[in-house]
Amino acid sequence: MEADISTQAVGLASNADFSLINLFIRADIIVKSVIVMLIACSIYSWAVIIEKIRLFKKINQSTEEFEAKFWNSKSAESFYNNLPANIEDPMALVFKDAMQNLLKRKSKTDINNRMTTMLETGIEKQMSKINKGFIFLATVGSTAPFIGLFGTVWGIMNSFQSIAISRNTSLAIVAPGIAEALFATALGLLAAIPSVIAYNKFSNDASAYSQKLENFSKRFLTII
Predict the structure, then answer these.
(1) 3-state DSSP call for residue 4?
(2) How confident is the model over 116-141, as pLDDT tens digits?
(3) How many domains would you assign to the chain?
(4) CA distance 62 to 51
(5) Which residue range(s) make up the domain with 135?
(6) By CB atoms within 10 Å of each CB, which of 34, 110, 159, 221 scores lowest?
């Protein structure tokens, strides 16, 4: 009986197709779960990355246009009255919210402190929208290699089980389990590396944009 198991194991391993699809099909439920999780994380990470690339390209252009129009306007109030209702630029929204609160208040005492608070609140609100998704990228970048490593360890354990069952230490016996293990490791790195690079880049872009908002707020306060 043991000889039959050994013969079957060697035969299956020697005829095995090591394509990515077949590696997934042959894997047990644990390794399959790891693979599916890493693929899902990688796909969602790329969705976030593409969305953020478009976002920063859009807001950098719209903010530059807004600043040019603002500093060429006759007054902040007239510029505010001519703002489109559906404007989406973060800097324009910070200015719009601050002006709304300013014009609603009858008392003009201590206007500098109140406007400073309004602008800071507006900046924080807009940056929270811009930073959405950063935590996911950071989480994938830090955990995906370890999830892949778990799949690697599990695949190697399966290889040792194959050796124990067949009592054969040939490469044909251990190759399928090792291939599954390396596949999980590769997926972990595939998900983690772009996420880490994107997180670092977008964090730097967000910091630069936040500084741009703060500089605008300081200059805006000087004209009130």
Answers:
(1) helix
(2) 888 999 999 999 999 999 999 999 99
(3) 1
(4) 16
(5) 2-222
(6) 110
